């Protein structure tokens, strides 16, 4: 598999993660655990609205990933958002996470892949 193909495969995979989590889990509300997490962190009064807003932001992130526009800024933004979100959730609501504290490990692997794809692999195809 060529380096460019690996780069594109990973970029599409990252976008799919954002789309699925944003649209399916949050906007459509098909994974109620996400709204419970938001409620425990931001409060119950507007948890549904915050969850939907976060979902829209995640869908937009997915489109940004696919677009390739300012890819390094996008990668840095993804890394910061994913780490902050997962650290916060691990500290405040570990009982609501799919894999508990292990979620943070998966987040670290995810951001390492983003970093490798955009700051190492991308250099080989330019």
UniProtKB/TrEMBL annotation:
State the superkingdom.
Bacteria
Looking at the UniProt entry, the stretches that span the membrane are 46-66, 73-92, 104-122
Keywords (A to Z) from UniProt: Membrane, Transmembrane, Transmembrane helix
Protein name, as recorded: DoxX family protein
